[in-house]
Design a protein that fits this description.
Helix content is 29%, strand content 35%. It contains five helices and seven strands; from the N terminus they run E-H-H-H-E-E-E-H-E-H-E-E. By secondary structure, it is of the alpha+beta class. It has a seven-stranded mixed β-sheet, sandwiched between helices.
């Protein structure tokens, strides 16, 4: 694993993020994705809303200065959640684990939540290595699979000692 950093997203990143989020294998793992990952106008609208929102921390993950993916913290129904998506070349090398650790260090709110498809073992490992624990399971429609699938909700709880 190279040197991992998080930085603000800029306009030059949007093509790489769009292409990354169109990868069929990644979509099958993420499952809870855009209805049509090839719709650039919908992606641009989504990205613009996220970049403009005061309650969204939307960052680019870099490895040795090069694009490796994106990561974000946002508020949904009053809960603070995290999400991440890595380009395929960055899979399986600890980059997501380190990127999430960095995001957690910037995001003071606890609990933090994350949602993951039950079949996404890699993402489950990333969450658990960062101290997230399973809090619930449910079945929901997954646009990436075009069918219902099991989703697990994880939480990073406040430390008992207040730290």
């Amino acid at each position: 694993m190279g040197h991992i950093e998080l930085r603000d997203i800029d306009d030059d990143d949007l093509d790489a993020v769009f292409e990354m989020m169109r990868d069929a294998e990644a979509i099958a793992l993420a499952t809870f994705t855009a209805d049509d990952p090839d719709d650039r106008a919908a992606f641009d609208s989504w990205a613009g809303r996220n970049r403009a929102a005061d309650d969204v921390l939307y960052l680019i993950v870099t490895e040795n200065g090069g694009f490796a993916g994106s990561i974000a913290a946002f508020t949904l129904d009053g809960d603070r959640e995290v999400t991440y998506w890595l380009a395929r070349h960055a899979w399986g090398r600890g980059i997501a684990t380190e990127a999430l650790r960095l995001l957690i260090s910037r995001e003071p709110e606890r609990p933090l939540f994350a949602r993951v498809a039950a079949h996404n073992a890699g993402s489950i490992a990333v969450l658990e290595k960062n101290g997230f624990t399973e809090v619930s399971r449910d079945v929901a429609f997954a646009p990436g699979l075009r069918r219902d699938t099991e989703e697990i909700v994880y939480a990073l709880l406040p430390a008992l000692d207040g730290a």
